[in-house]
Design goal:
mainly alpha, Na+/H+ antiporter like fold, 78% helix, antiporter activity, transmembrane, transmembrane helix
């Protein structure tokens, strides 16, 4: 009996004090990575004179390489919901900023965006096939390369306080590129269905994704505006309803297996065009949205391995170079017809450089359906993201300064406030 009491007492004590060796969970490492990302962001801003987001990306890449024994598949999967939430907020915000009236009045901007997107897709897909990639991987990689990161573009605009013709066109083209990339990948996925012998899915799946996403976006935009319009516009707490609506829509796209990028972007467009008085938009839905973006950028560096560089490194470098060349050439070719000078056209073409979470999301959706195609595609896209997250924001920030639209120059005062 005494032995039993002793055993119970020892078990009770073991629950009161930490056991050795200490075994911190995933939350400990995520918190540590965020602290490191915050410090890296400030280091990037103050010492390197680069946007903070470059430091966040570098912290994520270092965490992935140095913590390979800690960062397991389960931990990476858990960060997926945070990436989805950050993207959902940014896509809805970017859709809300897209003015259809402006696009109708300036159709050359729409044509320029369509031309540079098709040029990017075609050039990347053709060259990747030429250097050895399979047709399916090349076509999908080219479609994903069309995208311009909505989160990084909005983060740069807010951090640099950029305003002007190039900045407004950059936001519009980033929104359009996101729509094009999502649509291209959905259609290419339908082609993959036929390659794998599922002709019914090849016809019905892309149609379901495109039509279903548009219908859901229309319903969300209408319903969201009907609710939001009955609340006080100057009450910042009313944005909680909007955030909840965005996250609810994100959940619906997962349940209904629809395209999240198309749905959220188009829902923002529908929401905006319900009234003539545009709402004052809080930058990235406030601090919570900014935190999600930091988590997203850090998380995107975690899955990258040395094996990915061995499989997709050469293709990724080719994708990045060709993508920049195509976007610059496309904008310079037609940008002057929309009222831009050659200097502004060059700045806009270069500012389209960032590529981030949307590319990861599109790649992940393909990999989930067809692992055989998804694995080499994932290696290429993850390596391309590692390059673009470090250099894309630097190029875009330089381009906005070159256009003379930056109100806070991080080179001159360490970032300013």
């Amino acid at each position: 009996m005494k032995c039993l009491h002793y055993h119970v007492a020892m078990n009770g004590l073991s629950q009161l004090f930490p056991s050795l060796p200490l075994a911190p969970g995933g939350l400990f490492w995520v918190g540590l990575a965020l602290v490191g990302a915050g410090l890296a962001g400030e280091l990037s801003r103050r010492w390197l004179r680069c946007p903070r987001i470059v430091g966040y990306a570098a912290a994520g890449l270092c965490a992935g390489m140095l913590g390979r024994g800690i960062v397991d598949e389960n931990m990476i999967n858990q960060t997926r919901i945070l990436i989805d939430m950050a993207l959902a907020l940014a896509l809805f915000e970017l859709g809300h900023r897209l003015s259809l009236t402006w696009l109708r009045a300036n159709r050359w901007l729409l044509l320029t965006s369509a031309f540079e997107s098709l040029l990017t897709w075609g050039l990347v897909a053709a060259v990747l096939q030429w250097i050895g990639a399979s047709p399916g991987v090349a076509i999908l990689a080219g479609g994903i390369a069309v995208s311009t990161s909505p989160t990084i573009v909005l983060q740069l605009k807010n951090e640099l306080r950029a305003e002007g013709q190039v900045t407004e066109r950059l936001l519009a083209m980033a929104a359009l590129n996101s729509i094009y990339a999502a649509a291209i990948v959905q259609v290419a996925t339908g082609w993959l269905h036929s390659e794998y012998g599922n002709l019914g899915a090849a016809l019905l799946h892309p149609l379901y994704l495109l039509v279903g996403s548009c219908l859901l976006a229309w319903l969300v935009g209408k319903l969201g505006h009907a609710i939001y319009d009955r609340m006080s516009a100057d009450d910042h707490y009313s944005f909680l309803v909007l955030v909840g609506l965005v996250l609810f829509t994100l959940a619906l796209t997962r349940v209904l297996k629809l395209s999240m990028p198309l749905t959220l972007m188009l829902a923002g467009v529908v929401f905006k065009h319900q009234d003539n008085q545009p709402h004052v938009w809080p930058p990235h839905f406030g601090s919570a949205g900014s935190l999600l973006i930091i988590v997203m950028v850090v998380s995107l560096g975690l899955p990258l391995t040395a094996q990915d560089w061995a499989v997709g490194g050469v293709y990724a470098i080719a994708l990045v170079v060709l993508r920049h060349v195509a976007k610059l050439a496309g904008v310079v070719s037609l940008g002057s017809f929309s009222g831009l000078s050659l200097r502004q056209c060059m700045a806009l073409g270069l500012a389209l450089a960032p590529m981030s979470g949307l590319a990861y999301l599109l790649m992940h959706d393909v990999a989930r359906l067809y692992p055989g195609t998804g694995q080499p595609l994932a290696a290429i896209i993850l390596c391309a993201l590692a390059i673009e997250q470090l250099f894309g924001p630097v190029i875009a920030a330089w381009a906005l300064r070159y256009a003379g639209e930056v109100r806070v120059d991080i080179r001159a005062n360490g970032g300013g406030r």
